[in-house]
Specification:
heterodimer, A: alpha/beta, four-stranded antiparallel β-sheet, 33% helix, B: nine-stranded mixed β-sheet, 18 helices
Chain lengths: 227, 603
């Protein structure tokens, strides 16, 4: 069964003559555990698509179904809780909470759920992400690559079935980029998580199971990416 | 664009919403100073006219040296300094937040070649650009407010204010407003300007905008829930902001508590009693020689609103404690029903007093009191073998010059009780309140029916209601403005603080923080400011209140005792609570209603 189903998704910004159709009837599905890369020019609508899948933005029409749940049929509160528990986000700008330590940043979504973090899993994540030594550091005391690894940890802590990453390597150098991608792939395999990632890098797109291209709001399935 | 400074008006247009509160703060400071100085100036002009009428050859120099004028200017100066401090605190915190939330912008400016000096100039000129609209508006508001106040004094208070000009314009007031506006803004902008200049160009290109330069304390998530812990941390981590917020909260509370002492002071200076008499008729030998029928006769005369009398008997032997047989000499005075009711209405009875027991023919009495007195409510006194119980105590002794009992026991009884105990029915003193329109002829008619044993006094000119009302109006007016400034400041700062972290809040919402948690986080931040502000403000405020009470009141009125102003303190707490609710409502609603993507993408 597919984990994610996107059906006839449309999004329009502005109205009248100034209307911009960011997404035009986009439909696709992704099975559990698949690692998908989304590529496209700047302004093509890829971030809009990712934001819709993550319920950060609302579509003009269409449906997004995650694990059998129509996410836009929920009210805001339920949707927030659904997002907290089922979707992990990784941003280009990391967006860590500056006042929280590495460990606190990772367990942040669990704390928002008023739950106690699974200590064993946290240790496992810190080890996989190579952050044990830095667990009590603040984001300002970390390098860009380390900060992004914290963001990955935060996205993984709730065992989400879906991880959405918007250019997670955009602020990183080549070495750190490869590390982050390797970590994401490893997580996807180990925890059977579906990853949808926006990237500008062809080499990163090559590592994905499937590549989707967005151009002028229209989605094309490129299958496995080849030069 | 002629120069890089042309960016200022362009940026002001784009950031209209964010600048609105800063503008409001400047308008308020200018408005306050213009009105205070205009009123002081108009006050001096009235005083000058009054003195000129009295002494025709009075020079301006004489006028300035008059005590009244000096007091007015001194008061205006003190208020001016307080407003200046409040203004600097208020504007400084808004400009500070305004700069903090544009860290990336200043980083970018530094990136593309703006020098530190140019950044400082930019921030200062930006602040002065606000003055362009804020100062004229503040001055106009100040002038209109002064007109309103003059109209209120002229038509509502009247008396010595009946000659006050309605549409007077005070040049001193306007100049003070403008000077204070510019000075405050420049003073307030200097620190944020330096802060902006310190922004590293690298800030423009790094991801985490709010990255602290130095590592600070981490958050304890064990005591509070994560959103509460973050809210408290947001408040206490920015030391300077916390100090400014605490300072402005505290300053308002201190001003409030200090002004309350001024009202107390004027209450002692010009006690406003409901039973203040316009005319009094007393016995020339202080005996009860005024025929009691005279009361009814005068009561039926035109122009008399109300008449009441007192009987008195001095040095009556009494026994304080029957078992021990402690005897003493007491004074006894009778009050008519109206005057008894006024005792509780004027709040000069101590807590626990029950005036209703004293009324009519009873065995209850009221006693005078001071802090050295040993009398208590419930104590019993025997006069001519009749047992009387103290049903109430006065806060002081109104029959002595200094308000102290000096060890003397004076009892107040009802007329009926007094007659039963002493058999005396005639009065020693009659007092009447007259109608507002009573004529001099009607007064003469009353005095003409009195025999030579009576001393007649016309006290209508001694009424201080007008001056008292004007003073209390001004003090409460100023208190209202101080309160409003504090409220605005709190609302502004919380809104700015939320706006400064908007991107962070957006990211938190993206990873699962719900609207309710966002609100709780903002409430926790606001509550922390309020708690520190209230603690500092109430502590210093109470100390100043006690000190002011001592030098203004207790040193002149020895019976006056300073008490913790519990009701005003409760009022302050409620006001702060209400302000927090208002302050949190708008930003949290905005944060909840904004699309997450809109927040994250906002620069």
């Amino acid at each position: 069964m597919d984990l994610l189903e996107v059906k006839n998704l449309c999004k329009t910004y502005g109205s009248g003559e100034a209307a911009v159709h960011a997404l035009k009837k986009v439909s696709f599905s992704v099975p559990r555990g698949e690692y998908v890369a989304i590529i496209g020019e700047s302004g093509s609508g890829k971030s809009t698509l990712l934001n819709m899948i993550g319920a950060l933005d609302t579509p003009a029409s269409g449906k997004v179904v995650i694990g059998g749940t129509d996410i836009f049929a929920m009210n805001d509160r339920k949707l927030t809780i659904f997002r907290r528990r089922n979707i992990g986000f990784i941003f280009q700008a990391f967006n860590l909470v500056p006042e929280l330590t590495v460990e606190q940043n990772i367990i942040f979504p669990v704390l928002l759920d008023y739950q106690k973090p699974d200590k064993k899993y946290l240790e496992e994540l810190l080890t996989v992400l190579n952050l044990q030594e830095r667990r009590n550091h603040l984001p300002s005391q970390l390098s860009g690559g380390q900060q992004q690894r914290v963001a990955i940890g935060r996205a993984l802590i709730t065992h989400p079935s879906l991880i959405l990453a918007d250019e997670p390597t955009g602020n990183l150098d080549t070495r750190n980029s490869s590390e982050v991608i390797a970590l994401l792939k490893e997580a996807s395999k180990k925890y059977e998580q579906t990853i949808i990632m926006i990237t500008h890098s062809r080499s990163i797109a090559q590592t994905a199971d499937r590549v989707l291209q967005v151009s002028d709001g229209v989605l094309t399935d490129l299958g496995r990416y080849r030069e | 664009m002629k120069s890089y400074l042309s960016l200022i008006p362009l940026s002001a247009k784009v950031r209209k919403r964010q600048n609105r509160m800063t503008l409001l703060c400047i308008i308020f400071a200018v408005f306050l100073v213009t009105s205070i100085f205009s009123m002081a100036d108009i006050g001096v002009q009235i005083e000058r006219t009054r003195l000129l009428e009295k002494h025709e050859n009075l020079t301006y120099q004489d006028m300035l040296s008059s005590t009244m004028a000096q007091t007015l200017f001194l008061t205006a100066m003190v208020l001016f300094i307080l407003v200046l401090i409040a203004g600097v605190l208020m504007i400084s915190s808004t400009i500070n937040t305004n700069v903090v939330q544009r860290t990336k912008f200043f980083g970018m400016m530094r990136c593309i070649g703006m020098s530190k000096e140019q950044i400082i100039r930019f921030v200062r000129l930006e602040a002065l650009n606000w003055c362009k609209t804020a100062i004229p508006l503040g001055v106009i508001l100040g002038i209109v407010f002064t007109w309103g106040l003059c109209a209120a004094l002229r038509f509502l208070v009247g008396e010595e204010f009946s000659g006050i000009p309605l549409f007077g314009i005070s040049i001193i007031g306007i100049i003070s407003g403008v000077v204070v506006g510019i000075t405050t803004v420049l003073l307030a902008a200097s620190s944020p300007a330096k802060r902006a200049a310190k922004v590293s160009p690298v800030t423009a290109v790094t991801g985490n905008l709010e990255n602290p330069q130095k590592p600070h304390h981490t958050i304890n998530t064990h005591i509070f829930k994560i959103e509460t812990a973050l809210g408290i941390h947001h408040a206490i981590s920015a030391k300077k902001n916390l100090m400014l917020m605490t300072g402005s909260f505290a300053l308002s509370i201190i001003l409030f508590l200090s002004f309350l002492v001024l009202i107390d002071f004027v209450n002692y200076l010009m006690p406003q009693s409901s039973s203040t008499a316009d005319i009094s008729i007393s016995s020339s030998d202080n005996s009860n020689s005024i025929d009691n029928e005279l009361l009814d006769t005068i009561n039926s005369m035109p122009g008399i609103k109300r008449i009441f009398g007192r009987r008195s008997i001095l040095d009556v032997p009494a026994t304080m404690d029957k078992n021990k047989g402690t005897s003493c000499m007491i004074d006894m005075i009778s009050y008519d029903e109206f005057e008894l009711k006024c005792l509780s209405k004027d709040e000069i009875l101590k807590k626990g007093s029950d005036i209703s027991k004293v009324s009519g023919n009873s065995s209850y009495i009221i006693a005078t009191w001071d802090k050295d007195s040993t009398l208590k409510i419930g104590d019993r006194i025997w006069i001519k073998n009749e047992e009387l119980e103290i049903a109430g105590l006065l806060k002081y002794d109104p029959f002595s010059n200094d308000g102290l009992t000096n060890g003397k026991i004076t009892l107040i009884t009802s007329g009926e009780t007094f007659i039963r105990l002493t058999g005396i029915t005639d009065y020693s003193l009659l007092m009447a309140q007259t109608a507002d329109d009573i004529t001099d002829e009607e007064i003469t008619a009353i005095s003409s029916i009195l025999d030579k044993n009576c001393i007649f006094q016309d006290k209508r000119d001694e009424r201080t209601t007008g001056t008292y009302t004007a003073f209390v109006l001004c003090v409460y007016g100023f208190l209202a403005v101080v309160t409003l400034v504090a409220a605005l400041n709190i609302i502004n700062n919380i809104s700015m603080s939320v706006y400064a972290r908007i991107k962070q809040y957006g990211a938190m919402r993206a990873v699962g923080m719900d609207g309710h948690q966002i609100t709780k986080m903002i409430v926790a931040e606001a509550f922390t400011y309020a708690a520190t502000g209230c603690t500092v403000g109430c502590t210093i405020g109470l100390l100043i209140s006690k000190w002011l009470y001592h030098i203004l009141i207790a040193s002149h009125f020895s019976y006056a005792v300073w008490n913790v102003p519990a009701v005003p303190l409760l009022g302050i707490l409620l006001f702060v609570l209400a302000t927090i609710i208002v302050a949190v409502y708008a930003p949290s609603k905005r944060m909840r209603s904004m699309e997450i993507t809109e927040i994250i993408n906002e620069l």
